[in-house]
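Let us work through a complete example step by step.
Step 1: write down the sequence.
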Amino acid sequence: MALERGRGVVDVDGLARDDVRTLAERETPPGLPFAVRKIGHVVLKARDLERSVAFYTEVLGFRVSDVYPETMMPGGMVFMRCNADHHGVALVGGLGEEVDNSELDHMAFEVATLDEVLRAREHLEKHGVKIDFHGRRRAGCQIAVEFRDPDNHRLEIYWGLDQIGNPGHIRPPDEWREAQSLEEAIENPPPGQDTTVHDRSLLRT
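Step 2: predict the structure and record it as tokens.
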């Protein structure tokens, strides 16, 4: 059975399949000698390092922390930050051709407010950035804009990702609310997600 959610589908039977449930019920073993705190950084290959650094600094607002010349890293390397961490994204030159996203599907950047997601869409469009999607997917329920960098890496700016607290409650699929635009996502929120927009002029009819 498949339930229609906006233009998307929630495959209830597929979610109940044994192989899917086996993956969903995988437990972290007790007593690990370490605990990963967060995903620290991503390093991407770039064809034109100067062009890609310009995109990440001038369009996305990252700041350069350090740069390696080719004598230290073949192709050169640029470390960039978006918070107090030395780098969240690093770029290495020497990419031969545009990527096809066969290994890295996408990476995502969180913003603090829903209004910022709306502003990001407008800002990216003004800079001629290719936008693949804006709205809400399913699991996680974040509202996002998905787009490409100059080397065709898929990126996402998002707000409102579900938080998993104690005792580990995860939103059930019948509460997912896929939406094919930011406006649709705002008008049809999942239970508990406050989609109040403070600057209504950012909304499109």
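Step 3: interpret the result. Residues 114-126 form the longest helix (13 residues).
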